[in-house]
Automatic annotation (TrEMBL):
Keywords: Signal
SMART domains: BPI2 (SM00329)
Stored SUPFAM superfamilies: Bactericidal permeability-increasing protein, BPI (SSF55394)
Gene3D superfamilies in UniProt: Bactericidal permeability-increasing protein, domain 2
Domain Lipid-binding serum glycoprotein C-terminal span(s) in chain numbering: 232-426
Gene this chain is encoded by: Tenp
Protein name in the entry: TENP protein
Record-linked InterPro entries: Bactericidal_perm-incr_a/b_dom, BPI_fold-BPI/LBP, Lipid-bd_serum_glycop_C
Keyword Cell inner membrane attributed: no
Length: 435
């Protein structure tokens, strides 16, 4: 089975993305702002002695020149459409030359960055150009000339991306596997390098699922998915979008994991059912509790319309007594439509089934003769209406991790359901010290 599933997954490896996100200019400004303290720490380490011999071009006279303060006054990230990002950093340096007077200098770094996919399939931030400059803010021209020679600012460009908040470690964390149930995991994989436009940085993601450590095949996407235009108009830091196919894939993976093979207790017993179905009296001489066991008859799917999401479950329900071993009395097909409630807390999408909106029951097999549909509904419909959503909600109680990077969570989240996709505008919020 594992070999077969692996082959099937490979056959589906060219499927289109089913979710994605766009980091807006507001989100980019937030990331730049929280990177300023980090950049200052790195520059202090580089400029104030930890690697001083490499940065200060020493001579018998100049080696006593010492940078004794580093202050990042500005750090910005600008979008360069169809190319990448421009990083600009201004740093005030306090320099003590051979005299006792501290001189002030300004270090400026302008670097062009872009994100590409490495051979391992991870996104990686790469520096494509870097120009450092240094100038005095008050000093004689002679002192300025000497200091330009003494500070080897080019070394800063060797690892300029380190001045941002651990970007490559954060990008790798995007592809972490997240558990949904103990046996089922989800992973978000980028299909290509992000697209940079005036509206932001757009990334398309492909959802993959594993059950018991083995990748599972998913239904083919009926249409290619791309980020909706409304995502780029968001005033939030980030807009996530999930296609209808994403949700159908999620429930199909849960089906493969056996999540919908449910055992449902009922208020009925074999004696109370025998009052309505007389043939049952010959099957059971004692009174046993009646149990409903469900299996998926056909793969579930999700329908998204404006303002609502509906889960379609196609079950076969075996009705029987559970002692000493389960003995089926009858089987029926149940086509169930239940509304889905969607929300996001921290970095997890909360999905819950609301009351069943529609249900169709039909007899599939019976050991007690033909049974009218109306009698099936009278006996079993209340239990199904109550227990099926409750058990689906128990399965989904932990929520499903949405694409995110480590150390960050989402705030000011809203979830808007449109036809064919769900849009989640939100703000980034740093939660932990990184790097």
């Amino acid at each position: 089975l594992s070999i077969l599933l692996s082959l099937l997954v490979h056959a589906h490896s060219t499927r289109s993305p089913n979710c994605g996100g766009i980091l807006t200019p507001a989100g980019l400004r937030y990331f730049a702002e929280i990177s300023k303290p980090h950049a200052e720490i790195i520059l202090r380490q580089e400029l104030m002695g930890l690697t001083g011999p490499d940065l200060i071009l020493s001579s018998s006279k100049s080696s006593r020149n010492e940078i004794n303060s580093v202050k990042v006054t500005d750090l910005s990230l600008l979008l360069i459409p169809d190319a990448g990002l421009r990083l600009s950093i201004d740093v005030d340096l306090g320099v003590t030359p051979t005299s006792s007077t501290t001189k002030a200098m300004r270090l400026s770094v302008v670097a062009d960055l872009h994100v590409e996919m490495n051979p391992e399939g991870n996104l990686e931030l790469v520096t494509s150009a870097c120009k450092p400059t240094i100038e005095e803010t008050w000093s004689s021209e002679e002192t300025r000339s000497k200091m330009v020679k003494k500070i080897n600012v080019d070394k800063i460009c060797l690892e300029v991306s380190k001045l941002l908040l651990s970007p490559n470690e954060l990008l790798i964390s995007l592809t972490t596997q997240f558990p949904i149930t103990p046996s089922c995991q989800v992973q978000y994989l980028p299909l290509a390098a992000p697209v940079v436009s005036e509206q932001g940085i757009t990334i398309s993601l492909q959802t993959t699922f594993q059950v018991a450590g083995v990748g599972v095949p998913l239904p083919a996407s009926p249409m290619p998915f791309s980020m909706p235009e409304s995502a780029s108009s968001s005033s939030s830091h980030l807009a996530l979008a999930f296609s209808e196919h994403f949700y159908t894939s999620l429930f199909c993976a849960l089906e493969i994991a056996g999540a919908f093979n449910m055992s449902i207790p009922s208020q009925l017993t074999t004696v109370t059912m025998a009052q309505k179905i007389t043939q049952m009296g010959s099957l059971f001489q004692e009174d046993f509790p009646v149990i409903l066991q469900t299996v998926v008859r056909s793969s579930p799917w999700v329908v998204l319309e404006e303002g609502k999401a509906v889960l379609k479950l196609f079950l076969t329900i075996h009705v029987g007594a559970g002692s000493p071993v389960f003995q089926s009395i009858l089987s029926m097909n149940a086509d169930i439509s239940a509304g889905l409630l969607l929300g996001v807390a921290d970095t997890r999408m909360k999905i819950s089934a609301a009351a069943i909106q529609d249900i169709e029951l039909s007899l599939a097999a019976s050991d007690v003769g033909p049974i009218p549909a109306a009698l099936l509904e009278e006996l079993l419909l209340p239990t199904i209406r109550e227990e099926v959503p409750a058990q689906v909600n128990a399965i989904l109680s932990e929520g499903v991790a949405v694409p995110h990077i480590s150390g960050f969570t989402y705030s000011n989240v809203s979830v808007v359901i449109h036809k064919d996709y769900v849009l989640v505008p939100c703000n980034l919020e740093i939660q932990a010290a990184i790097g």
